[in-house]
Design brief:
Elements: H1 2-27, E1 34-48, E2 51-65, H2 74-87, H3 92-103, H4 107-123, H5 128-145, H6 155-183, E3 187-195, H7 200-204, E4 211-215, E5 218-219, H8 224-231, E6 237-243, E7 246-253, E8 256-258, E9 261-263, E10 266-271, H9 275-298, H10 303-306, H11 312-324, H12 327-345, H13 353-366, H14 372-401
Antiparallel strand pairs: 1-2, 3-10, 4-5, 4-6, 6-7, 8-9
Helix pairs in contact: 1-6, 1-11, 1-12, 2-3, 2-5, 3-4, 4-5, 6-9, 6-12, 6-13, 9-12, 11-12
């Protein structure tokens, strides 16, 4: 059950990402052709104002189809109509008219020639497979020639639409963190929430619910308790606590080094922050975690850095483990994953969002689109690198699952 919820949590983050692209595209005048929750085949679908909304049978995230991501090219039609031409040569003349206008980049004439190709395709005697391929090609051609095509938009609009996906994931993380800081345990108190078994605090008799108000006879605040313990350097300490109506002294108890710092093995209770304080705390946390993620990405060239990579298998495993520890822990992990997805997508590699942003900037400087062949070659390099990261992460995850 936990694994299923963890998978749905990951799917939610993908859906949030796609919703960012969709809503921003609508705002800047690009009318997305499709927006799906889940992936096809469609369970149910409806068309409103030129957009097909649907629920897919595969409940993993969602997707948005923005029209005309690339400038139409004659080679695209060769690929989509190859089967249809083999079955009906009557398509050759109208197809060549459209291709000729695309080659000379006369978009108005190309658009004017499309209806003839559509009629010829509808009248041709084609197999279902050839008909589907031809219709796909016509659909892509219509989108590419449309006034609201992505490739025809100004540079800033293209960048904003692509950036909106990662931005939606960052915003999701901020909202989740703010919620947790407000209604969770964002601020430590002096009350002991838990005492770890086998650690000095447990051996000395400290119990959950004890309120620590002095260490070695000096009053302490919640923030000072871990600092005083860490600064002891292992020197024995005496804790003065309130337990119900009684005042007790615990110790002397000697802190031990745990994960590089001197600790007693206690966990303090927390209380929620005010909303403004929670917003500020979540913003700081997002900034700190982003720096760590960027640093880990720059360390990928080192073997040590590669060990930190995780695939979807590891993400689901970590989310499932967090869920077993409580809903709040699961939300913390979900927020961190959302932030990681945002930053990973901003890598300047096609087909990632960062690659599209980089190409939009280059095309804005050139003043004209790059050839489709350039996109395809660079995308192949990007896909190889992304797949490499995936397989490294999968190898790491399988090693962890196997105890390696």
């Amino acid at each position: 059950m936990n694994v299923a919820i963890a998978i749905l949590g990951l799917a939610l983050l993908v859906l949030v990402h796609e919703l960012g692209h969709f809503s921003t595209a609508r705002l800047v005048g690009m009318n997305p052709r499709r927006f799906y929750i889940g992936f096809p085949p469609a369970v149910v679908k409806v068309t409103r104002k030129g957009t097909e909304y649907g629920i897919g049978a595969i409940p993993l995230g969602g997707y948005v189809k923005i029209p005309g991501m690339h400038r139409p090219a004659a080679g695209d039609l060769d690929l989509s109509f190859s089967g249809a031409l083999a079955e009906d040569t009557g398509l050759l003349a109208p197809l060549e008219r459209v291709k000729r206008e695309l080659v000379v980049f006369d978009l108005d004439q190309a658009r004017a020639a499309v209806p003839e190709l559509e009629r010829a395709t509808a009248e041709a005697h084609l197999s279902p497979q050839a008909a589907r391929s031809a219709e796909r090609g016509l659909s892509e051609l219509r989108d590419g020639l449309a006034d609201d095509a992505y490739w025809r938009a100004s540079t800033w609009k293209r960048i904003v639409v692509i950036l909106a996906g990662p931005a939606a994931n960052v915003l999701f993380a901020l909202v989740v963190f703010t919620f947790l800081f407000t209604f969770g345990e964002g601020k430590a108190t002096t009350t002991v929430h838990d005492v770890l078994a086998g650690k000095p605090a447990a051996a000395a008799g400290l119990k959950p619910g004890d309120e620590i108000f002095q260490i070695d006879g000096r009053p302490v605040t919640a923030g000072q308790i871990p600092t005083r313990i860490a600064n002891s350097k292992g020197r024995p300490l005496v804790l003065t606590v309130l337990r119900g109506a009684d005042t007790l002294q615990i110790g002397p108890v000697r802190p031990e080094k745990i994960q590089g710092a001197y600790r007693l093995g206690l966990v303090l209770s927390g209380e929620g922050l005010s909303f403004p304080a929670a917003v500020w705390a979540s913003t700081r946390l997002t900034g700190d975690v982003s720096k760590q993620i960027v640093a880990s990405l720059t360390n990928l060239v080192h073997k040590k850095g590669r060990k930190d990579i995780s695939s979807a298998v590891g993400i689901v495993q970590g989310s499932s483990t967090a869920l077993s520890q409580g809903a709040l822990d699961f939300l913390w992990v979900l927020g961190l994953i959302s932030l990681s997805l945002a930053l990973l997508n901003l890598l300047p590699l096609l087909p990632l969002d960062g690659g599209h942003i980089a190409f939009s900037i280059v095309e804005g400087i050139r003043g004209r689109p790059l050839a489709r062949e350039v996109y395809e070659r660079v995308s192949m390099v990007g896909i190889v690198l992304v797949l490499g990261l995936f397989f490294i992460g999968l190898s790491n995850d399988l090693g962890r699952l196997g105890g390696g």
